[in-house]
Backbone:
C-alpha cells in the first residue's frame, strides 16, 4: 500500500483543494465567489478501495492478468485510469463465458460496494486470487441482514434494487437459504408496505409492484409479519429514518406496542461519510448562493442524493467533470428525473455570483479542482495566483 501512495496522490490529489480547505473553503475573484462544502469527495472506504486496486497492479505486474468486477467505484475517470493500468473489466454479474476465461493464475478485484454471494462463490471455485475492497460500512449492513435471516426476520432494505451494493446486500439476506428480503426505494413504496402490514390486500398486485425487488418465494402474508429494516449505505439518512419510523408504526398498529420486539427491528446503517457530506451540504445551503455545482459520477448513489438536496433549494447542476461546463451560455448536466444528460442555456449570468460546490464520496479532488478552475475560466479569470495550475502533478 505504501508503494502506491505516491502514484495515487499524483492521479487524484489537488493542491488547490488542499489550499482551500486550509483557508476556509472559499475563493473569490472578480465578482465570482465559490464556496466549498466542509466535507466532500473521497471517503476512507473509496480511498482504500482505490489503493488496494493500485497495490494489486503493483504486486501482480504483467503478465499476470487482473480483472475488476464491474466498477471499483462509481466514477468514470477513476475506472478509466485503472483500465489504463492494464486492469480488465468483468460485468458485475459475469456470464458463464466470462467466468470460463478466469484461471487460477488470474487476479479479480471485488469493488467497494461488494458483490453477490453466488458470484463470490463462483470465483472462489475458480481458485483465482481475490482482492476484496468491500467497504467496512457495507459489510456492517451485511452482518445485520444475515442476523435477520438467521432469526427468521425479513429484511426490508431502503435502497435502489438494481444498485450493486443493494444486490450484494439482498444476497446476504438469503445466504442461509431461508431468509427473505424486500427493497423499498422511497416513502411511497414504504407506505404501500405499511398499508399491507396493517390491512393486507391484493397479494399479486403487491408482488407485481415490487417485481425485481423481493426474494424468490416472497409472500407478503407470511414475510411481513416480522421485519428488520436496513439500508443501502448511501441513501439519505432522514429518509431511511422515516422508512423505519413508518414501518415501526405499522407494526404497532397491527400487533400492539407490547408485541413490537417480536415484529420489528432496526439499526443505524447509514455510512458515516455519506452522512458527513449530507450534513455539510445542508450547512452550505443555509448560505445565500445563486447556484450549486455537484461533481461526480452519474451512477453514484451518494452523489445523486447531494444533487437532490440542492435541487430543493436552488438551481443545481450535477456534472461528471468540468468539461460539461461548455460555456457561460451552456452547461450539460444530469437530470435525475429524466435519467439523461440535458443542456441548460444561460446558466452562468454575467453579474456577481456566489456558487456552492460539493462532490460525492467517489469523486477525486483533482476533478473538483478542474470544476472550480473552469468556473473562473468562464469569466476569463485564472486562479494561478492562488495555487499554480497543478494538473497531473497534484
Residues:
Amino acid at each position: 500500500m505504501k508503494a502506491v501512495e505516491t502514484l495515487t496522490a499524483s492521479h487524484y490529489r489537488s493542491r488547490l483543494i488542499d489550499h482551500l480547505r486550509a483557508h476556509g473553503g472559499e475563493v473569490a475573484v472578480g465578482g465570482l465567489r465559490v464556496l466549498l462544502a466542509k466535507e466532500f469527495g473521497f471517503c476512507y472506504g473509496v480511498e482504500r478501495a482505490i489503493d488496494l486496486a493500485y497495490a494489486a497492479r503493483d504486486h501482480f505486474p504483467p503478465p499476470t492478468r487482473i480483472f475488476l468486477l464491474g466498477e471499483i467505484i462509481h466514477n468514470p475517470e477513476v475506472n478509466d485510469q485503472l483500465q489504463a493500468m492494464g486492469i480488465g473489466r468483468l460485468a458485475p454479474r459475469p456470464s458463464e463465458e466470462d467466468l470460463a476465461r478466469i484461471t487460477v493464475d488470474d487476479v479479480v478485484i471485488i469493488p467497494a460496494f461488494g458483490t453477490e454471494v453466488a458470484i463470490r462463490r463462483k470465483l472462489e471455485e475458480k481458485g483465482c486470487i481475490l482482492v476484496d475492497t468491500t467497504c467496512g460500512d457495507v459489510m456492517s449492513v451485511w452482518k445485520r441482514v444475515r442476523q435477520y435471516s438467521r432469526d427468521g426476520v425479513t429484511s426490508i432494505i431502503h435502497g435502489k434494487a438494481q444498485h450493486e451494493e443493494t444486490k450484494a446486500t439482498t444476497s446476504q439476506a438469503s445466504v442461509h437459504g431461508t431468509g427473505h428480503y424486500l427493497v423499498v426505494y422511497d416513502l411511497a413504496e414504504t407506505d404501500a408496505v405499511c398499508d399491507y402490514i396493517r390491512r393486507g390486500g391484493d397479494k399479486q398486485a403487491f408482488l407485481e409492484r415490487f417485481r425485481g425487488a423481493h426474494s424468490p418465494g416472497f409472500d407478503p402474508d407470511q414475510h411481513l409479519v416480522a421485519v428488520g429494516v436496513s439500508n443501502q449505505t448511501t441513501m439519505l439518512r432522514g429518509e431511511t429514518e422515516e422508512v423505519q419510523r413508518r414501518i415501526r408504526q405499522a407494526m404497532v398498529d397491527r400487533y400492539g406496542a407490547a408485541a413490537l420486539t417480536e415484529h420489528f427491528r432496526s439499526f443505524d446503517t447509514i455510512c458515516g461519510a455519506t452522512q458527513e457530506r449530507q450534513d455539510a451540504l445542508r450547512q452550505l445551503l443555509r448560505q445565500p448562493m445563486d447556484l450549486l455545482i455537484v461533481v461526480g459520477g452519474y451512477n453514484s448513489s451518494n452523489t445523486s442524493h447531494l444533487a437532490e438536496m440542492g435541487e430543493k433549494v436552488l438551481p443545481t447542476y450535477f456534472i461528471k467533470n468540468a468539461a460539461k461546463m461548455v460555456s457561460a451560455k451552456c452547461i450539460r448536466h444530469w437530470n435525475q428525473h429524466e435519467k439523461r444528460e440535458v443542456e441548460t442555456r444561460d446558466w452562468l449570468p454575467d453579474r456577481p455570483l456566489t456558487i456552492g460546490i460539493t462532490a460525492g464520496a467517489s469523486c477525486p479532488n483533482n476533478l473538483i479542482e478542474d470544476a472550480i478552475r473552469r468556473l473562473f475560466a468562464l469569466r476569463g479569470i485564472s486562479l494561478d495566483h492562488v495555487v499554480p495550475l497543478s494538473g497531473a502533478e497534484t
Remarks:
- Residues 137 and 342 are 34 Å apart (CA to CA).
- The mean pLDDT is 94.
